[in-house]
């Protein structure tokens, strides 16, 4: 192990002052970027404005109307009261006498409609699992009971909303319907006439055709997804929800704090919807130019209903979490649209295009500030999984390992360049120390200090030294690291993907094994990597600060990130150990040892005194 002794701990002197400041500055920037990512979404997009101030198509009475979609269990008003609210024009009544269900099913999902409200009570994705390993139901039961079920209707009159979502519709078919197929729900009474038709095929898309009239006049009724998703069982899942839109080929992603309940905005809209980390419900209007959208934002108390990581264990106090929804209609009153409800799989989203547009739903994958880098990292990861590990082990964990190895091999030449730059810096360090000693008597604010900096820069230029040469690998790796940080927890392909003792690469290591390995390996990286000119005390401080920083980042974060970081550290240690044995590494250690002897004094004299 003596062969690998850190060459930096013997080098010091006044020549390290400027580089120490650069190292501290780099650390501050890293910490700033890490915490800055947490607030990126809130700073980049403004909240949707109230339509009452944007367009005159909505009256003041409509803007002030009740926005909350009510649940069938809470809106079952007496028939006489509903009739009085809707008018008394005579017309043939069309309504069922008993509740029935209709099932639309293909290889991807099983959707259960109830004729009460003509809405969805269960939307099961067959290829996705919940926390208990069962097929995932995307209907959030608690939120649906409070705010409405998927594909219920939203209007700007509370009585009308209550009536259309509690009425007993006549279904065109009951039981199961084969692919392709469709089902219609029709209700008519007291001047109100509602028709809802849903068609489906073998994809995740369904088509909706909704028309509501009162006394023959169209009512502005919007079809809605009001209550979040059934996979939201922890604090991160709720807080990562977002309201997604694309207007004029420009997408926006609004965090829950930026969404106001009941705000309405008229088109054009290529698509609009809500999503969480892994799933989305998106409306693609058949007529984007006349589309109208309402934002739905509420809160529910999960203290007694969901006991998962990130929530308070004290059930006596409410734990309020945001629940986002949206509703889509048409200014003509007749709404026709495709609806995508499913996982945010990049290959699927890429193939779904809005009406009359070449764009797709791919922008739903929002990886944050370093999103473009994260996107290509994931595509590379997906390619490795498809062509390498899928035929071998099928593990996404091994795909991460292979991608990490590939990245480190690509930047290996830069590591060698960094070491060469460090050697050049060590060779001229005595001359740099002499220049700094010459100007030591001048204060920092003295103009003579500028002459000192000019001499040092000229010395470095004459000897081919790049003062930033040692930072190049770090400058490349840090964006990759933060891109992984933003990408891994949002990739549905890695959801519930296991690797050895890790049950889910998008969740934290349950035993914290990888974070501990990462902390130890990060310390060794700091110890063995040459940093010419850095003061020994500064080097020791960084040797503990960097592992602590990386440990904090990965302790309760996606284990896939800890896997990527740990493997990268282990590869870096191995590469540095080999380079330290080369002639380049030996020369660096010899120069460092000479500087150490000069600083400590003449060793023979010291030994003679002993």
Automatic annotation (TrEMBL):
Protein name according to UniProt: Membrane protein insertase YidC
Gene: yidC
Low complexity bias spans: 54-66
InterPro entries named in the record: Membr_insert_YidC, Membr_insert_YidC_N, YidC/ALB3/OXA1/COX18, YidC/Oxa/ALB_C, YidC_ALB_C, YidC_periplasmic_sf
GO cellular component assignments: plasma membrane
Species classification: Bacteria, Pseudomonadati, Acidobacteriota, Terriglobia, Terriglobales
Matches recorded under Gene3D superfamilies: 2.70.98.90
Alphabetized UniProt keyword annotations: Cell membrane, Chaperone, Membrane, Protein transport, Transmembrane, Transmembrane helix, Transport
Role of this protein: Required for the insertion and/or proper folding and/or complex formation of integral membrane proteins into the membrane. Involved in integration of membrane proteins that insert both dependently and independently of the Sec translocase complex, as well as at least some lipoproteins. Aids folding of multispanning membrane proteins.
Similarity field: Belongs to the OXA1/ALB3/YidC family. Type 1 subfamily.
Coiled-coil blocks: none
Compartments, as annotated in UniProt: Cell inner membrane; Cell membrane
Any one Gene Ontology molecular-function term assigned to this protein's record: membrane insertase activity
One record GO biological process: protein insertion into membrane
Sequence intervals crossing the membrane: 23-40, 396-416, 467-491
Pfam family of the protein (one): YidC_periplas
Subunit comment: Interacts with the Sec translocase complex via SecD. Specifically interacts with transmembrane segments of nascent integral membrane proteins during membrane integration.
Membrane topology: Multi-pass membrane protein
Keyword Transmembrane helix among UniProt keywords: yes
Domain Membrane insertase YidC/Oxa/ALB C-terminal, first and last residues per copy: 396-581
UniProt cross-references to HAMAP family, sorted A to Z: YidC_type1 (MF_01810)
Superkingdom, natural source: Bacteria
Annotated region described as Disordered, given as residue ranges: 48-72
CDD domains attached to this UniProt entry: 5TM_YidC_Alb3, EcYidC-like_peri
